[in-house]
Amino acid sequence: xxxxxxxxxxPIKLEDVRxxxxxxxxxxxxxxxxxxxxxxxxxxxxxxxxTTLLAVAMGLIEPxxxxxxxxxxxxxxxLRRAFxxxxxxxxxxxxxxxxxxxxxTGTVARSEWPTRIVELLNLVGLxxxxxxxxxxxxxxxxxxxxxxxxxxxxxEVLLLDEPTASLDPAxxxxxxxxxxxxxxxxxxxxxxxxxxxxxxxxxGDIVFMHRGRVVESGPAADFFAxxxxxxxxRFVAGELLV
Length: 242
Hints:
By secondary structure, the protein is α/β, with parallel strands linked by helices. It contains eight helices and nine strands. The protein starts with 11 loop residues before the first strand and ends in a 6-residue tail after the last helix.
């Protein structure tokens, strides 16, 4: 019997994507390919469209016009991709039970749940906190739990919306270390951030957005060494873009 490998969600392609809400254009003619490899980090000023770009790539938002495809397929259910919001909601149950809930929505056999919960708690540095109410965890711990819930679905693509926003330096470092660990497991990470230092530390590729458009994209080293547009040069220099 031939066993067919599961279809890949990669590359994710956005082709001339536009998204508008209440006559306001949020994404404007965005064409972008997200391929396997090192993390892709989306940067840009507030209101640039970063969160909406991630939501469209996840399939949570239908574009007003244009086309999105996952591994060459359109309208593909998000079975192999996961999304973590900037302020994830914690369920009113224990830390371990939050992960159990995520496992129940995936394909892992019920008999494997206890082992998988322990593995995920260890991975995100929450071992020993499985019985603590999730809403009593610190902000950084809740963000790591949100990552564990996302990983419970065994995604191929993990989209993160500003995962270190409002966290202190120690909690930020813990999330960044975890992102590196996840990427080393061949999970494609696509994340937005307002922190240029974080983008320098984590990105393999950069997507720079301004006013709903992708202004520049490419290898992070090239972008930070010599941004090619005036908007990108000003943003890297710390100047405010509106």
